[in-house]
Amino acid sequence: MNNDKGGFAMDIKCIALDLDKTTLNRQGKLSKGNREALISAMKKDVHIVIASGRAFSTLPKDVTSLPGIEYAITSNGAAIYHIPTGTCMHRYHLTPASVNDILTVCKSYPVVFEAFIDGTAYGEKHYIENPVFYGTPPNVISYVQQTRNPINHMPDFIRQHANCLDSIDVVTGDIRIKQKIQTELARISNDIYITSSVPRLLEISHKDSGKHSGLKYIQNHLHLKPEQTAAFGDGDNDIDLLLAAGTGIAMENASPSCKTAADAITKHHDEDGVAWGMRHILHII
């Protein structure tokens, strides 16, 4: 597999990695092949940066504990962390006005919420107890139940924390409802960034966030040019990330829109696609 849009002459110093269905395998784990590839890249002074829709506290330990991984773009770019110290380096909070817009629009639909605050994830209690009812795939159930703090009435909880929300996920379980909510929010609010990593979710954060915004922050922090960075992803929420990198690489299992945005396609996430891309597309290991 290659499927690139031309040859690459690169001096890659930083690689941003989406996690789920990109760096992690079907079991949500870092495979031996990808782990060895990350270590090899870091030995060559390449910065490895996590770029995830997850909250900081829910990032998998087999990735964050890997020596040399310093930075994490979390909550779709709403918060950027220095991993060794757990320090938040940069953050965008949703505005209270946009939080009110989200709750007002969603009130008319049978949805539930997740909320990310200071790197911690919260979710509606009955959703956490039965995530399959809302369209959560079986292989994601344990992740949801182990990483979300249960709240009995999420709209009230969200209102009480309207000044400190990194992001809000709207769990729809229905693509038609998702599209209606997204259209209404785009019409009435200019303060939000809306994206989606999986069909059942709308992921909403401040207008200036996004994984691409996080990568630009890291580029500036490390004094790197965009062409010195690469990024791997699979979802629609990775499109802006791939476009912000000098070389954007989509997984074989990526969404059609993500593949269209990419400069090259690597192997499936269950076939160590990140390692394959580092070796055969970026030529850094």
Describe the protein in words.
The chain has 285 residues and is an alpha/beta fold. It folds into 2 domains: 14-91 and 210-280, Rossmann fold; 96-206, Hypothetical Protein, Haloacid Dehalogenase-like Hydrolase, Chain: A, domain 2 (2-Layer Sandwich), CATH 3.30.1240. It has 12 helices and 14 strands. The protein has an 8-stranded mixed beta sheet. The chain has a 6-stranded mixed beta sheet with strand order 8-7-6-9-11-10. The longest helix is centred in the middle third of the chain and has 14 residues, at 175-188. The protein starts with 13 loop residues before the first strand and ends in a 5-residue tail after the last helix. The model has no long low-confidence stretch (mean pLDDT 95).
Q: Can I get a quick summary?
A:
This protein has helices spanning 19-23, 32-43, 61-64, 96-106, 125-129, 141-147, 154-160, 175-188, 211-221, 239-244, 256-261, 273-280; strands spanning 14-17, 47-51, 71-74, 79-82, 87-91, 112-117, 120-124, 148-151, 167-171, 192-195, 201-206, 229-233, 247-250, 264-265. It is of the alpha/beta class and 285 residues long.
